[in-house]
Design a protein that fits this description.
Blueprint: no helix or strand
Amino acid sequence: GALDVSGNAGIGSLNVTGASVMTGSVTINDTLTVTGAADLTDTLTVAGNADLNGELDVQSATTLQSTLEVGGDADLNGALDVSGNAGIGSLNVTGASVMTGSVTINDTLTVTGAADLTDTLTVAGNADLNGELDVQSATTLQSTLEVGGDADLNGALDVSGNAGIGSLNVTGNT
């Protein structure tokens, strides 16, 4: 039969079998243990810490109001959008990457493959090139050019100022 209590009832132990409906607020002053699945059809508010010992599966967008700390690996299968600063100890990127805006590197940049620069390259300090330099267009040097070995010029040499030549060997028409 049905039990209808309209006031307070002191019950030492309550075992409920079957479906139950509780209307209004329910206050539990100790641990709540659920041995089966729990379906919550509205907001879950946790005032203290939440300790989840299994997998957390979230089906919709998630907003965290504070820091997210991950103790193990993080596997992101979609885009990562960071609108503030990101401190990353070591970053390994596989695949094509696009960086929009200025990029500052405060240490050595090592490129193991080809590097295509489609705009101006500005070097504030010395540049050390340990291989061949192939320039496909006109080149302007704003200061002295010093060549430590032989120089092979396959076109005309136009000198508009003084030229100091220690030894000159000319082959062909002069």
